[in-house]
Specification:
It is a single chain. The chain is mainly beta and 190 residues long. It is 2% helix and 45% strand. The protein has two domains: 54 residues, no CATH class; 107 residues, Beta Barrel (Lipocalin), CATH 2.40.128.
């Protein structure tokens, strides 16, 4: 082998591998004194007693960067699903099921109305609503709907608006007409 200081026996003094958060770090250092063939203390005679041994000099450092730790973002709250409850207008208390599909702030809802035991003479019907939901305030609002199945000739699919509770399990609102009062819904569990 050559006496070139860059030969294998002169370059490799050690490899330090440290695992930091799953990222390997390797450092190769050079020590010209390293010789796998030499015997321990074979070079002590050539050193004077006042000489201080030198530390190995880094030859190459492989750069690395620590991964950025980010908190997983919370999923946007969704109101998509089936909601059941009642609303009250001039015809009395009416059963209602609202099937909501949310995409971002846009909301499409199919509202089915039907009689309840307290008011068995209310006709059934279905209207489609397009409105919006604000995930920060938890408010939802719909202008007038469009009948898919109109219960009677002069019925109007009044708009409605209101607010969901913090856990998005209940909705309390009002119908947008002077003859109506409240609409209350509860998310239907699967």
């Amino acid at each position: 082998m050559s006496d070139n200081p860059l030969t294998f026996k002169n370059i490799l003094a050690g490899v330090v591998v440290t695992i930091l958060g799953g990222v390997p770090l390797a450092v190769i250092i050079q020590d010209a004194r390293f010789d796998p063939q030499r015997t321990p203390n074979s070079d002590t005679s050539s050193r004077s007693s006042t000489e201080t041994p030198s530390l190995p000099t880094p030859v190459e450092t492989i750069p690395f960067s620590l991964p950025t730790l980010t908190q997983p973002s919370e999923p946007e709250p969704t109101i998509s699903g089936v909601w059941v409850g009642t609303y009250t207008c001039s015809k009395g208390i009416t059963g209602v099921t609202v099937d909501i599909a949310q995409t971002g702030n846009a909301v499409i809802a199919d509202l089915s109305l039907y009689p309840v035991s307290a008011n068995p003479n209310v006709p059934s019907g279905m209207a489609r609503y397009e409105g919006d939901f604000n995930s920060t305030s938890r408010r939802m609002s719909f202008p007038r709907g469009t009948w898919i199945n109109k219960p009677a000739l002069f019925w109007t699919a009044f708009g409605f608006n209101g607010q969901f509770d913090q856990k998005l399990e209940t909705f309390d609102g009002s119908m947008d007409h002077h003859s109506c009062t409240t609409i209350n819904l509860t998310r239907k569990s699967d």
